[in-house]
Structure formats: C-alpha cells, structure tokens
Design goal:
7-stranded mixed beta sheet; two-stranded antiparallel ribbon; globular; alpha/beta; 5-formyltetrahydrofolate cyclo-ligase; Rossmann fold; 4 helices
C-alpha cells in the first residue's frame, strides 16, 4: 500500500470504482441488513435522528438503506455544505418530497430551510462516507475535510452523540493510515461483510 494520504486515496478510489453494478447492488442489500442489525445493538431503534448521505464516486450505495429507515419511521437528515463558510456541514431533514438542489460537487442536497436543520448534538447517529479505514478505526475522507471540520468542536473523549458510523466497501480497508491531528476516529464501521467496533 502506498504511504501518502493522496496515494492511498487514489488507490482505494480506483478499487471502489472498479466494482461492478452487480457487486454494488449486492453490497447495498448487505449494508441494509448489517446496519439494521447494528441499530438494534445500539438501542436506538425507534424515531431516531440519523444523519446519512447520498453515495457518490463508487461509495457504498445508501439508497436501499434510506428507504428501509423511512419504513422504520426514522428521521433522516442529509448534509448541506454551509452556505457561508463553505467548509462545514449542516444536517437538514430529508423526506421523500424534500426539494433538492445540486451542490458544487454535483451531489444533491436538500434546498436550505433553516427550520429543518438538526443541530449536530441532536442527531442520534451520523453515518459517514470515507475513502479508506484502518485497523484502529481511523478514517480517510475525500480530502475536503467537511466532516472533520464539522465534528472538530464537538469531539471530545466523553462525547456521547451522535454515534459516528462509517460506511465502506470491504476493499476500502487497509492495515494502517497516516493520521493527522484533525482526523476524527470512528468506533463503528459497517461494510457489506463485517461490522467493526472499537
């Protein structure tokens, strides 16, 4: 495995994007099952406030999970890039009829409505995308730092919620990642094959 963060990011994104349509479909089904199982173990099964995201760039498909969570009557929130600083995220309520708009990366997000935003510490669970993860629960993102910057002022040793859960394909696992001081480690990562906890 390459040593630098940029090289790891490039290598893993290539692996992720080489997955076939059928592999992605099967992975989405397995993710739905694994997350539903893990949700029961977290004792946060009814009317939870859950931050989730739309998959992009070969990421593990979250569309089936979103539908499943709606069926379970969970409250879902999608990230919106902060309209003023452009470097952190808001999490806004997402329902089937929510008006959507494309952000600067071409990813759909809810049209900003301040009355529908959930403060970060009111989310029960935050599902996070990642490019790579290692044996210690360290996460390597796409490089924009949106999640790390958003979580920076909340993260501390006794932080209880939201529970941070990374979602990834198994091919995104590496033995060890080069870590920076601003990286927020995860205690839960779910792949189609396995549920990791630290």
């Amino acid at each position: 495995m390459s040593n630098t963060r940029a090289e790891i990011r490039q290598s893993i994104r290539k692996k992720r994007n080489s997955l076939t349509v059928e592999q992605q479909k099967n992975a989405a089904i397995a993710l739905k099952m694994n997350f539903t199982q893990h949700l029961k173990s977290l004792k946060t099964t009814k009317n939870a406030h859950i931050g989730i995201y739309f998959s992009n760039d070969g990421e593990l498909d979250t569309s089936l999970l979103i539908k499943e969570l709606w069926m379970q009557k969970q409250h879902l929130y999608l990230p919106i890039i902060h309209p003023f600083n452009g470097t952190t995220l808001y999490f806004q309520r997402y329902e089937e009829n929510s008006p959507m708009t494309a952000n600067r990366y071409g990813i759909l997000e809810p049209k900003l409505n301040c009355s529908q935003i959930c403060p970060l510490d009111k989310l029960d669970i935050l599902l996070m995308p990642l490019v790579a993860f290692d044996n210690q629960g360290n996460r390597l993102g796409m490089g924009g730092g949106f999640y790390d910057k958003t979580l920076a002022r909340y993260y501390q040793e006794n932080w209880q919620k939201p529970i941070l859960i990374g979602l990834a394909h198994q091919c995104q696992h590496v033995p060890a990642l080069p870590i920076e001081s601003w990286d927020v480690p995860l205690k839960h990562i779910i792949t189609p094959e396995k549920i990791y906890q630290w």
